[in-house]
Design goal:
With 171 residues, the chain is α+β, with helices and mostly antiparallel strands. The protein folds into two domains: 6-67; 91-158, no CATH class. It has two helices and eight strands; from the N terminus they run ββββββββαα. The chain has helices at 121-132, 138-170, and strands at residues 6-12, 19-26, 29-36, 48-54, 60-67, 94-97, 102-107, 112-113. The radius of gyration is 22 Å and the shape is extended.
Length: 171
């Protein structure tokens, strides 16, 4: 299957239609997902999944293995499991229906509202502590801020390297 930005390949077993492998290659690099069905305890689902992602220059970005040891069928799942509240969305998350290309509203912690919820920093910390049932300490906040800043610096550095390579190839 080919779309504008990526080349996708699927390895599907007949007649069970088990998907053994999916590859996706594009400007972003390559993703290779493999499923293994060698454990009788998982029924029609794979017993192991491996995910490997390489970046645009072939550098390894992700290498993960997931082992399924058991599966329970016919379990009751409450309807609330699939509602917005169970997703624990951050305050003021914009909720959009992309199919209808329409904004549905902003999450106020309980329901969707039309307008962005305004809170002081203290009110927001209290709300987060109540929702998460544990206050975020300053150390955690600083670590998350530092990680965000490092990601921005890395993205700018990668963009600069790509721009520099583009200029050197023009010469």
């Amino acid at each position: 299957m080919v779309d504008e930005d990526a080349d996708n390949h699927y390895w599907i077993e007949e007649p069970s239609f088990r998907v053994h492998r999916v590859t996706n290659q594009g400007f972003f690099g390559q993703i290779d997902i493999r499923s293994y069905y060698d454990n009788g305890n998982t029924g029609p689902l794979p017993s192991r999944i491996t995910i490997r992602r390489n970046g645009p220059q072939g550098e390894l970005e992700l290498d993960r293995k997931i082992d399924v040891t058991s599966i329970k069928y016919n379990q009751d799942i409450p309807d609330s499991f699939f509602d917005l509240k169970s997703m624990r969305l951050p305050l003021n998350t914009e909720v959009v229906d992309y199919r209808a290309q329409q904004r549905l509203g902003y999450w106020d912690g309980e329901k969707l509202v039309e307008r962005y919820v305004k809170m002081s920093a203290q009110e927001q910390r209290e709300w987060e502590a109540r929702v998460n049932r544990q206050p975020l300490g300053n150390a955690v906040r600083y670590i998350l801020m530092a990680a965000g800043i490092l990601m921005i610096i890395y993205a700018l550095f990668a963009k600069f390297r790509a721009w520099k390579r583009g200029r050197s190839s023009e010469r």
